[in-house]
Specification:
mainly alpha, 2 domains, 13 helices, membrane, transmembrane, DUF2637 domain-containing protein, transmembrane helix
């Protein structure tokens, strides 16, 4: 995977005038063609190296599965809306199914909605009644959509004298009740969400890491190493020219060996 900036100089030119540039990131961009060395150049280098690693087949398959699951979940959560739309048709009356055709579709959609509400309610209880705004609003939305669909379907059924509506409207009623109960319990009995975990402070680099980085840099061809150093120093000059770092800081950065910017004091 390629990065947004092809060189450290390009990265330096694009920094905001109000930014405080991280020299570790600058050097990581200068070394981006050598991922093994970048990965050892501090936290910033490790982050950039993670972006440079090729995405394996398993990871790509995982992404596809994640998207498929998300779309399926969205479709399931939106089933009541589909059921309501099937009953109501469009606002101009161009597309509208008769009640004998739309009622089964709406019934199935709201049956799915009822199952979703039941699963969400059980999950909420299992998780210790933790507050979840997303599920709460999904329950409220399902209840509102259900009431609208039930009222509209009743009107169509009475006009068309359709006897099957009574059976197909039962899932709508169940979904409304479950959604209303779920929303009410969320509002009244929810506990605060779990606090975000405290960030883990990285341990200081082990003494052997510096030697490992030196070995990785030594494995780079001399001309490539010189090109990375030139790109790094040119980027430092850009930051100094733009006033993003002071002259003393720029001189200190230029004196550091290649791969050493991440070790400079902030």
């Amino acid at each position: 995977m390629s990065l947004r900036y092809a060189s450290a100089v390009e990265w330096a030119e694009e920094q905001s005038a109000s930014a405080t540039p991280r020299l570790g990131i600058l050097e990581a961009y200068a070394l981006q063609r050598h991922p093994d060395a970048v990965a050892l150049a501090g936290d910033d280098g490790a982050a950039i190296a993670g972006m440079l690693r090729p995405r394996g087949a398993a990871r790509r398959a995982g992404d596809v599965a994640g998207w498929a699951f998300g779309l399926a979940l969205l479709a399931v959560a939106g089933a009541p809306l589909i059921g309501m739309a099937t009953l109501m048709g469009d606002q101009w009356g161009i597309w509208r199914l008769p009640i004998e055709d739309s009622a089964p579709v709406a019934g199935v959609c709201f049956a799915i909605g009822a199952v979703v509400q039941l699963v969400a309610l059980v999950a909420w209880l299992v998780r210790g009644r933790r507050r979840s705004p997303a599920w709460r609003w999904l329950s409220i939305g399902t209840a509102i959509v259900g009431v609208v669909a039930y009222a509209f379907g009743n009107g169509l059924a009475s006009t068309a004298a359709d006897d099957a509506w009574a059976a197909w409207s039962a899932p709508i009623v169940v979904a409304i009740v479950l959604a209303a109960v779920s929303a009410g319990l969320h509002l009244l009995l929810s506990r605060p969400a779990e606090p975000a975990p405290h960030p883990v402070v990285a341990a200081p680099a082990a003494p052997g890491d510096a030697g490992t980085l030196r070995d990785a840099l030594a494995a780079i061809a001399p001309e490539d190493r010189a090109a990375a150093l030139a790109d790094r120093d040119a980027a430092i000059a850009v930051l100094e020219r733009r006033g993003l770092i002071e002259a003393e800081r720029a001189a200190e950065a230029r004196r550091a060996p290649l791969g050493g910017l991440h070790a400079l004091p902030a």
